[in-house]
Structures are given as C-alpha cells and as structure tokens.
Amino acid sequence: MRSSAELDERLSRPRDALAADLRDVDGDLLILGAGGKLGPSLVRLALRGVAAAGTGARVIAVSRFSEPGLADALRAEGAEVHSADVADDDALAALPDAANVVFLVGSKFGSTGREAATWATNTYLPGRVVERFRGARLVALSTGNVYPLVPVVSGGCTEHTPTDPVGEYAMSCLGRERVITHLAGRSGTPVALIRLNYAVEMRYGVLIDIASAVFAGKPVDLSTGHVNVVWQGYANEVTLRALRHAGVPPFVVNVTGPELLSVREVATEFGRLLDREPVFTGVEAPTALLSNAQRCHHLFGYPDVPVAQLLEWTAGWVADGKPLLHKPTGFQRRDGRF
C-alpha cells in the first residue's frame, strides 16, 4: 500500500456481490455523516457499486465537511454533495428525499465531560432522522460497545447476547438503537443496525494504535488483551448490502472479522515487521469487548482482506511515515470513558 490514493481506491473497490445487491435496491441513496472517518470511503464504494449495478441511482453525500477539499473531491467523483449540519432541524428538513438512507453520524471521542452533547448526537438525533425519512430503508451504524465485556474463551457476543453497555458513550449508543427501533416500528420504517467493532484501515484503527506504539518504543497496554478487527472496506460493503435486509423490527448484525486477536501476538508481529522490540505494560484480563460475527459472514461472506495482509500493510504504512488521522480508538479502555 504505497499512498493514500491507492488506499482510497482499495477501500472503495466493489465486489460483485455488492453490485448484485444494489440492483435489488430501488431508489437513490443518501449518506448522512459522509465526512467522518468511514464516510468518504463508503460514499466512494457506493458510487462504484451503483455504477457496477447500472441502476443510475443518485448517491447523495451529506456532512458539515470540515475537511478542506473533501466535498469538492466527492462531487468530482459523482456524488451529489450537500453541506449541512443534520443536527439543525431546518437543515435536516431541507435535505432531498431518498428511498435509502445510511446514517453514520455519532459522537465517541471527548464524550467524557460532554455527556449531554453525546446523548443528543447518539440518541436524540437518530430519532429525528427516522422521523424525517420515515418509510425509507434506513441502515444505522451502531457499535459492539452495546455488549458487555465477556470472557475471552466465550467466542464473543452474538446478536442474541443481552446488551449491557459499559459507560455513557456505550449507553448512548444503545439509546440510539432503542429510539430508532421504537420510532421506526411506529411508522413502519425498515431498519438495519450495524454493530461494528473495530474497523481498520491504514490511517486509523486498533492495528495503527498498536503498530505506532511499537514503532515509537512506547508501551503496549495489555489490559484489554484480545480484540476483533475488520477491514473497513468490508464493513462499508456490509453496511450498503444491509439495505436489502432492513426490516421491522430491525435487522441486527455484528460486523467484525472472524479472528480473535491477541494484542500481545499482534504487537510481537509488528515488532518483527518493524524491526523493533515491543514494550508491554499491564496483564491480560480474562474478559474483553468481543463480538461473534458468524451471522454476518454467513450472509455476506468473509472479509476480502485477511489479518495477515492488514498487518503487513499497516507496518509498511507506519514505517514509511505515511499520513494518519491521529484518532486513537481507546480500545484498551475498560471503563467506557472515551
């Protein structure tokens, strides 16, 4: 992986299954939160997927677009771009109608000390979106943080595991699911909820957090000693393909990779790839935030980029000093405070 342009191309490369599913989804696609971490690559994947499907659907990208040049770049690639703060009722009302809506807006980092604002973004706003786009197919990004920490030997939480979020961020995300489910059920709006953890690419994610620490000679915290990760391109693909599965009550799916990764073993491999000796702190706890994504893999296939490839790409990216988003995931936190 040699450049951001090559990374963006790989993240947005549609597989045949995506094009096939999009052929069965009538109407335009509106993506709310198109300027966030996942948004740009998902918009690009949607554009290429729609083109491959040949449906002629519009892909409408909505965000405040604080990153300079992003709105123009997405417009140049074929998206219909609307710069808007969807938390403003007038701006939300003024958006174009669409038969299919992907809701990516959320607040995590800096939520400690801003709990009220976090709940407004993660719980109140999704309800306003359901009311605005009632009747449309809605896919809403959620998180595996709605689950409790579980024994590492358990195999992870399935969609049937009782939710038990740790901390206010996670509680607000469960609030998002509850409000969406209630209002969508009342209006008959079909919904899919994507419980994602943890999406990775070369500019951010759990693997970047670990690789950067190893490369810099900083301690790798083993307190949360096991994690799930998944290639962001696959997570984006599942998010779009979930439009076909939206229903009342909501279709719920865990999205992550099939592997249980040891943080110690990942850091050790990065040490080999980066020619560094990893430094560790803490001891692995017997529990972690883990998801079982068998349902996802049965419906949508396995991720197309395996962990071994992700490790090699990540190590090369860090060693070459390529751009990072500098947004640590906080996966080590066990108290839910982000």
List keywords for this structure.
338 residues; alpha/beta; Rossmann fold; seven-stranded parallel sheet; two-stranded antiparallel sheet; 15 strands; globular
Describe this structure in words.
The protein has helices spanning 4-11, 16-23, 39-53, 70-76, 89-94, 115-132, 167-187, 206-216, 232-241, 263-274, 294-300, 307-319, and strands spanning 29-32, 59-63, 80-83, 100-103, 137-143, 150-151, 191-196, 199-200, 219-221, 226-227, 230-231, 251-255, 261-262, 279-281, 287-288. Helix content is 40%, strand content 16%. The protein is built from 12 helices and 15 strands. It is α/β, with parallel strands linked by helices and 338 residues long. Helix 2 runs parallel beside helix 9 and helix 8 crosses helix 12. 46% of the residues are buried. The mean pLDDT is 96. It starts with a helix and ends in a 19-residue tail after the last helix.
Write the layout of secondary structure elements.
Layout: H1 4-11, H2 16-23, E1 29-32, H3 39-53, E2 59-63, H4 70-76, E3 80-83, H5 89-94, E4 100-103, H6 115-132, E5 137-143, E6 150-151, H7 167-187, E7 191-196, E8 199-200, H8 206-216, E9 219-221, E10 226-227, E11 230-231, H9 232-241, E12 251-255, E13 261-262, H10 263-274, E14 279-281, E15 287-288, H11 294-300, H12 307-319
Parallel strand pairs: 1-2, 1-4, 2-3, 4-5, 5-7, 7-12, 8-11, 9-14
Antiparallel strand pairs: 6-15, 10-13
